[in-house]
């Protein structure tokens, strides 16, 4: 326990020292240690009462030294991409430090719906769910993104070697599988994976963004037709033909990448002259997308339904805040720790 506390208190010093070591050894040799490319897989449930394999998410338990090395690389790669404007943060807000992506996107999407309602405008909003996002992104699209954004060749070679040699195994109470090569997808649990996934998605989003113009929200207010947070992609258009064109373009691009959307988990909302229109149906992957009139959807922490009202959400927030404050007050923690729970746990949950 003493050793653990020491490491936590001195994590920045340890990381700085490891950064220097990785510069002197890893970056010069351009080789990845074999132990860093081996992972034990753990399945965690994605929902309550999960029984089928597709209801679980595989998380990779990796070598700690390797995770520190790739966290340094990820930090520098993120800084490089943002400082050079390679990631459009008005569209993609996932994996970007210092950006409250969920809150910002959810607020802007809700504001667009409310403006369409009050100004009696036309608006289409489609929430798209990507099937097995991390596990289906091809390594080729990652290499394409690295070349497209002029990432140094040394880094490209290291990442290519890393994913080419990456292997996993899974254990249960009774047996352990053989080692399996990761031929497609990226490992959840690897510190470099989030920014690489963002780069891959950015390639797709940039290829689709010109399929529709900005959504007209009235009063000289316009919004980009695409919003993304990691793999959660939302289409916002004020013209139905542009919505269909954007949806078709994204569908083609995903098929080209050997990825696909889940129509059953996607949702659409159509507003015509300020009122909900349940008759407008969109399709993706040759299947109909359910409307919010049929099934409400929760995206980035906010519920959307055919009422286009926030009354229920307000009541739920008050109830959650009351229960959370009572729970914090009843716990046996010191006062300053209760404040920490309020600031970093309850408030973030309410937002």
Automatic annotation (TrEMBL):
Residues 25-308 form the Reverse transcriptase domain. The lineage of its organism: Eukaryota, Metazoa, Spiralia, Lophotrochozoa, Mollusca. It comes from the Eukaryota. This is Reverse transcriptase domain-containing protein. InterPro entries: DNA/RNA_pol_sf, RT_dom.
